[in-house]
Amino acid sequence: MRVQERQSQVVLGLDPDPSALWPGSDVRAQGDAPPVQLAGMAILAHCRALIDATAEACVAIKPQLARFELLGAVGWTVLGAVAAHARELGLLVIADGKRGDIDVTARAYAQALFGGVETPFGEVAGLDANMATVNPLMGRDAVEPFVTAARAAGAGVLLLVRTSNPGAADVEDLELADGGSLWERLAGIVDELGGAGVGESGLSDVGAVFGATVPNHLARARELMGQATFLLPGVGAQGGRVEDLAPAFAPGRAGGLVSASRSISNAHFLTGEDPAQAARTEAERLREATWALG
Amino acid sequence: MRVQERQSQVVLGLDPDPSALWPGSDVRAQGDAPPVQLAGMAILAHCRALIDATAEACVAIKPQLARFELLGAVGWTVLGAVAAHARELGLLVIADGKRGDIDVTARAYAQALFGGVETPFGEVAGLDANMATVNPLMGRDAVEPFVTAARAAGAGVLLLVRTSNPGAADVEDLELADGGSLWERLAGIVDELGGAGVGESGLSDVGAVFGATVPNHLARARELMGQATFLLPGVGAQGGRVEDLAPAFAPGRAGGLVSASRSISNAHFLTGEDPAQAARTEAERLREATWALG
Q: Which residues of A84-102 are buried (b: 16+ CB within 10 A; e: fewer)?
């Protein structure tokens, strides 16, 4: 839905490296605050600038939780501020934390990322993400609490099915004794758990992370997960090409979200332009290339 | 080493539910702070009391990161304070976050949990955990950055190999086409990556999370991972029995760490005693039962 409104399937990955922020993000002149505070302010400035530069071409941001966690409590405050800024500009928020655990622990993760929790001390707000990535290694009972919490909050989950890294071959690509690969089995879990959460768009609230680096598997993935939104990382820096991703969009344009981080934020290293201008151009290029597919 | 010093293999799981804290943890009388602050103070008081009551019988604490993350920035501050308190009492800290990601993202998670990071703004401290749980679904290249960072910090990682939940059968127990189960394959990664990190104790800095609920697999797990420390969750509430865990201790007492959360913190519901007294008694019972195994 948001994809139609914004005419974009591009997800801006936010992966801020404190050692490689955009010029202008540095706030050391602001005083004698501890390093973690200075780093937090700089990361917030960087992410805001990156979002402002590219928002028009994007449908969502995807913060890497690790980069914020690195700053502990400060990082979580910055993450909340970044998410709020993106929402103000009409962007969805995809929390990329790849959490996975069981039972009450999974529920706590989900409450933190989605709608928060009612406590005896009053309501504690969550991050209010629209989607979150979830690791299904521990099995169905490790995924269900995330699906339940997301559904209650009007949000969705994206299960890791076949990731974009070379090491995915070590585990996700293993062939199973009773046929198919492990990732195909994980795709089955996506399809099964998503069945009860199919909206008017025809897409369910349980999607899949599927590496753009293995486009040869995409048609099979779509066959196994007909109603799932695919989050497609690995375009650009990791070698994935947009034009190979057509099968992802079989259920409609919102069936695939193309995620890019460094190819947008570091575009100025290639073009020599101002970082914001270069990022805007690259995000728009990616938007057009993806939109043309479906 | 710490196991010998403290004569304990018991890990106190910290899984604080804001709705079920020990009496006396409630700090609402302290004023009009926002709910998240009150919940944070209460969780800190609860965890400190639980640690104080059981420290003598334990070798480590194992905070569930999810429960702290639920309180966002406040939760991370509380987590740091809980870890510091445990360290003051001579306990190790096992960060149970089950993180898993690749490349720079994995490194950021590891820096957050272990030794922190040098930034242009100065040094940002990490949680300084002694061990952290890691999810290996994404393969070897998703685990290596954690191992590297842990090794540099004199810490260790614990890979999820066969978890204690029923759903583990959905994925971890799958039989592979070329023989063995997925968890056996994951055990191979543990053994391989740990080879370069075997200390004087004969144990490596890459261990495994192995459910005490499947003791029938323990001998095989030990065969595949001869030098790995096993973190054994699932005793008590989940049905695992200490007396079935003997194979874990084949390389010595420190080869197995028995983790218990609710069976300790909720012991008073069974005995009717004061929570601290009941927790102490249960932790000491578990310490003795485990120590007696060898």
A: ebbeeeebbbbbbbbbbbb
Query: Mind listing the pLDDT tens digit for each residue in B118-150?
Result: 999 999 999 999 999 999 999 999 999 999 999
Task: Tell me, rounded to whole angstroms, the distance of Cα A68 from its chain centroid.
Answer: 14
Query: Among A124, A172, A182, whose Cβ lies nearest the Cβ of B71?
Result: A124
B127 with A102: Cβ contact below 8 A:
no
Indicate the Cα dihedral angle B230, B236, B241, B243, nearest 10°.
80
The structure tokens 């400060």 sit at A74
ipTM score assigned to the predicted complex: 0.96
Quick check: A204 pLDDT over 90?
A: yes
CB contact under 8 Å between B185 and A174, yes or no, is yes
Please identify which of the residues B98, B107, B220, B285 carries the catalytic annotation.
B98
B62 carries an active-site annotation: no
In B, minimum Cα distance to A21 occurs at: B120
Domain boundaries, chain A: 2-291
Give the distance between the most distant pair of CA atoms in chain A.
Answer: 63
Lowest mean pLDDT among A171-180, A190-199, B20-29, B245-254: B20-29
Contact B176 A174 (CB under 8 A): yes
pTM above 0.90, yes or no: yes
Task: Report the residue from A73, A108, A138 with minimal CB separation from B165.
Answer: A138
Cα–Cα distance measured from residue A113 to residue A126, given in angstroms and rounded to the nearest whole number:
5
DSSP state of B153: T
Find chain B residues with C-beta within 8 A of A109's C-beta: 66, 69-70
CATH architecture type of domain A2-291: Alpha-Beta Barrel (3.20)
Nearest by Cα to B227 from B252, B209, B245, B262:
B252
Angle at CA A175, nearest 5°, toward A169 and A180? 120
**Could A120 and B178 be called an inter-chain contact, meaning their C-beta atoms sit closer than 8 Å?**
no
Closest CA to A51 of A226, A213, A234, A264: A264
